[in-house]
Specification:
Blueprint lengths: L17 E7 L2 H13 L4 E4 L5 E3 L4 E8 L4 E3 L23 E7 L4 H11 L1 E2 L20 E2 L2 E2 L4 E8 L4 E6 L11 H4 L4 E12 L9 H7 L9 H14 L22 E2 L11 E2 L5 E2 L2 H7 L15 E3 L7 E3 L5 H19 L8 E3 L4
Parallel strand pairs: 1-4, 2-4, 3-18
Antiparallel strand pairs: 5-6, 6-12, 7-12, 8-9, 10-11, 10-12, 13-15, 14-15, 16-17
Length: 360
């Protein structure tokens, strides 16, 4: 990849060249590459699956460190020499009713979810089909269809670039909230090396917490369903929204949901919009609903001359590259949508992907 553009590493297939490229097949290589760049005063961009990145057309004037290796360990952390029989269920051991699984940062997320469903590890099945690597999941507390990783993460091992040493944060210490964590608050400090999950054992899923998924499975919200059925149902729902990567489908040339669902005061929720009360008194509403009702329908932008970017034809939350697009054009579309929602409803949408070398 050294002579290629970052477009080759992102699901949007956008972004200019990096000054320097380093492949990191394991945690030691990741730490070494980032430490070398830090000591040289060189900016660093760590890239896993590239599914949550919008990179400027000018590229990145620094070192790109690309995670190229993964791995899954049951009952032990990577580089952890503590014997398994000395551990308890709250940390990193294996029990009859639950299992602790440590996943390397570079492990493709959906490969891990597929294995979990096959092994009878319960708790991440509704997160099927999400692109990217496991190390990215705690950063923005990845979630979908009623599950989020905060529900099952027990530990995140990181390299602290400020202290120049390893640290392990418990799930509670990660300060998870909606699409947020302590790692997202301070993105340049911590390199995720591996993530430990505590998952129940069983043939049935966790209680289904999302109405659309429950309807698809023909169960009530709060009921359980076979693990394999939940995984397949989620994959089907995501494919219908263009959220499962497919090189032949330009609706999947995206960064997934481009805007997060906004949290607003109850009086700001438009009539007819979804409304989910929150513990702090605010209400979460739907960014997709706001976009559609502000006049931006699926496929918006495709009717323009020489259209290179548009909203997905399957889901209004995804901004897509129709081929030959530029990051500048994509961001112009994002600004247009954001301004339209603000003008119509007085609610300002916030981007979910990380913007590298560019801004809205």
């Amino acid at each position: 990849m050294p002579e290629s553009a970052l477009a080759d590493l992102t699901t949007l297939r956008l972004g200019g060249p990096a000054r320097r490229y380093v492949a990191a097949p394991d945690a030691d290589a990741l730490v070494a590459a980032v430490t070398e760049a830090d000591q040289a005063g060189e900016p660093v961009l760590v890239v896993g699956g590239g599914s949550n990145l919008v990179v400027a057309d000018e590229g990145f004037a620094g070192t790109v460190v690309h995670l190229t290796g993964g791995g899954v360990r049951v009952g032990e952390r990577f580089n952890d020499r503590i014997r398994r029989d000395q551990r308890d269920l709250t940390t990193n051991s294996v029990g009859e009713t639950s299992v602790a699984v440590t996943v390397a940062a570079g492990e493709p997320w959906d490969a891990f979810v597929a294995r979990a469903a096959a092994e009878g590890w319960v708790g991440v099945e509704a997160l099927s089909g999400i692109p990217g690597t496991t190390g990215a999941t705690p950063i923005q507390n990845v979630g979908a269809y009623g599950q989020e990783v905060a529900q099952t993460i027990t530990a995140v091992r990181v390299w602290d670039r400020m202290l120049r040493g390893e640290r392990t944060f418990s799930g509670e210490d990660c300060r998870f909230s909606y699409r947020h964590s302590r790692f997202k608050t301070d993105p340049r400090r911590h390199l995720v090396l591996d993530v430990t999950f505590r998952l129940d054992r069983g043939d049935l899923s966790a209680p289904v917490g999302y109405a659309e998924l429950a309807r698809t499975l023909d169960v009530a919200v709060g009921e359980r369903a076979p693990l394999a059925a939940v995984r397949e149902a989620v994959l089907g729902l995501r494919r219908g929204k263009g959220m499962v990567l497919d090189a032949a489908d330009h609706d999947t040339w995206s960064a997934g949901s481009f805007f997060t669902n906004p949290f607003v005061d109850p009086g700001q929720v438009p009539d007819g919009a979804p409304s989910y009360p929150q513990p702090d008194g605010r209400v979460k509403t739907s960014a997709a609903w706001l976009i559609e009702h502000a006049g931006f329908e699926k496929g918006f932008g495709l009717d323009r001359p020489d259209a290179r970017v548009s909203l997905s034809t399957k889901h209004t939350l995804a901004l897509t590259n129709r081929g030959g697009a530029s990051t500048a054009a994509l961001l112009d579309l994002a600004r247009e949508v954001r301004a339209g929602v603000l003008d119509r409803f007085g609610i300002e949408l916030v981007n979910e992907p990380v913007l590298v070398g560019c801004a809205l």
